[in-house]
What we know:
With 327 residues, the chain is α/β, with parallel strands linked by helices.
Amino acid sequence: MDLKLLEILCCPTCQAKLNYKASQFNSKGHVVEGELLCPKCTKVYPIIRSVPRFISMDNYADSFGYQWNLYKYTQVDRFSKTKQSQQRFYLETGWTKETMQNNWVLEVGCGNGRFLEVSSRSDCQVVGVDMSSAIDAAQELYQDKDNVHLIQASIYELPFREQTFDKCYCIGVIQHTPSPKKSITALQSVVKKNGELALTIYERKPWTLLYGKYLLRPLTTRINKKLLLWSIKIVSPLLFIMTEILFRIPFLGKCFKFIIPYANYVEMTDLSMKQRYEWAILDTFDMLSPAYDSPMTEKEVCQCLELCDIKNITRLPNPGVNVVTIK
């Protein structure tokens, strides 16, 4: 943990400024092992493998920790040799490297850090938060990046002072939290006045819950995660070949994508067949395993933001409810 984090951290319980005690430093003077101490409520938060931990390791997001530690390299651009994550990040935030310069930027739900790689290329300080053990995959990938800081915490108990960040983004995460509306409220509270918030949330339409994955999820969310992943791998040779054909049929392809809950991205021509196969297994597991999956309508998202006194809301023309706001 870089000690500069102490400037923005606070106790998530009482909001007091935290002190630290270190038992091990690295060559850069960062805390590798130690504790964060709250002088007000006396709570103690461990620093383990350079990551401050504000939540227990076992929680409702454990499926994400499992998948991202297994597939830590799969969707990171420098390993896939593509620009998939870069393109998605800039499309869904509307930001540029230049507009992020000298900012404190927060990503909530960073997983293994596929978007941290992109945001950290700007001259800014980026904080990635995840409540699952996926934070350890991110730590392994970005431990040498001096402007990337990682924290394990809940979206509902973010350990930051109010109005800390110039920018905050949360891509494809909020629908997987117990209360999406409460999650949006929590995010906006740590953004500065005139700061920017970028959100992408699964969109709920009248027919959404008829989508194939929602018919399977009552079963798959109860299955052991290792067994579920093994089952997906077993059926993937057949499903991949089948969807290679069905998903490419004009017009009907969209219908088959709706019916068949298998994430074969036939439109991603910059990925090799081997890469698409791996992405298909990963993202099929991602759709069937999370404990929560609660899409929202655009109206619900905007109403929630307006209740937080945010009026400047723009929807971007990307999949899902993708909105950017100025607080």
